[in-house]
Amino acid sequence: MTEKLFARLQEIYPELVTFRRDLHMYPELSFQEKETPRKVADFLTQLGLEVRTEVGGRGVMGILRGGKPGKTVAFRADFDALPIQDEKRVDYKSRIPGVMHACGHDIHTAALLGVAKVLSEVKDELEGNVIFIHQFAEEVIPGGAKAMIEDGCLSGVDVIYGAHVASHLPFGTVGVGEGHLMAAGDTFEIDIYGAGGHGATPHLTVDPLVVGSQILLNLQQIVSRRVDPLKPAVVTVGSFNGGEAYNVIPDTAKMKGTVRTFDKDVQDLIEKSIGQITAAACESAGASFQYKYERGYPSVWNHPEETKRIEQLAKKLFGDEKVGHEPPHMGMEDFSYYLQKVPGTFFWVGGRDEEGDKSYPHHHPKFDVDERAILTIGQLFVSACLNYISDGLVTPELQKEVGF
Ligand SMILES: [Zn+2]
Ligand SMILES: [Zn+2]
């Protein structure tokens, strides 16, 4: 069956490229997606699937019920674009000023639709169900995943897989990683209220810039002195503002920053520490403050068995040398919410075009990838689906490897 489905994927590949390029030409920003979910829903409806729209807001779900009872496998693709001006020279460049598919979510969408199409053609033979989750707003917190889950997109789901095309990996390769793959990303804001005055009479003021500077420097001690050195963490202040004139001490100063962590304990510790450091500096200077800490996406934690499954399938499909272990990195992804609910894994699929002009990083105005990544994702999803539903929790080979 796998061979047959791969052949079909190959046959419909031109259609998937056309779909991808259409999305690429008409990208839509997070939380503003309108035409994209409509196009996705139309495609799924034409396949004869049960389709739910406006899931959690702007999400779309395709539900494929197999001819025989069995497990339920879910796949997720995101479909939002970014506020970036497309600077590529290709005929499918963005037609929308200032908006661009600069992360590859158009590739994910086309790949998942391809998987839906080929699996729907064999649905009578399928022992189990498949849920296609087309997610809105991955790029902007609070993201679409959480809302889609709250709206029931994971109900009855046994396992979930997600893939991201990677411009840092060459086309044809796959990157997997067990456990922590991507970080939790939070933001914080500190407003410092002093008492302004003349720059020549600082003794009559409470200078919020000096207090803020102290806070900024002391924040550097959180990672170096308070966090376990074996646990990765980042505290970055990205903005520190206050005052405008040469000779005026302002009343207020404002600081903004981001925190990246993998462990919840570390995240809690950092949130608390920023507050303590701020309070101490303000108290000793007689300033007051307001501290706001907002949690973004949790860290992506890949379940070991499902990660091994993808690794093993990828090695079988593309060769051992094409599959690597990806180290965790400090970027974030709201796929983490799905993995908190059901087992699964998120993996990277190489999209770097070695010959062409497509090796720019994600979120770059010239970002593009080798479109054949659509096929890589499609093949892996199809084989993961068949492998999971036909063999239950683990394959015999996997059983040996993970010692079940
Ligand atoms: Zn992105
Ligand atoms: Zn992305």
UniProtKB/TrEMBL annotation:
Residues holding Mn(2+): 103, 105, 139, 164, 363
InterPro entries documented for this protein: Amidohydrolase, Bact_exopeptidase_dim_dom, Peptidase_M20, Peptidase_M20_dimer
CDD domains assigned to the protein according to its UniProt record, in alphabetical order: M20_Acy1_YhaA-like
Matches recorded under SUPFAM superfamilies: Bacterial exopeptidase dimerisation domain, Zn-dependent exopeptidases
One annotated GO biological process: diaminopimelate biosynthetic process
GO molecular function terms noted in the UniProt entry: metal ion binding; N-acetyldiaminopimelate deacetylase activity
Cofactor: Mn(2+)
Keywords attached to this entry: Hydrolase, Manganese, Metal-binding
Cofactor note: The Mn(2+) ion enhances activity.
Protein name: Peptidase M20
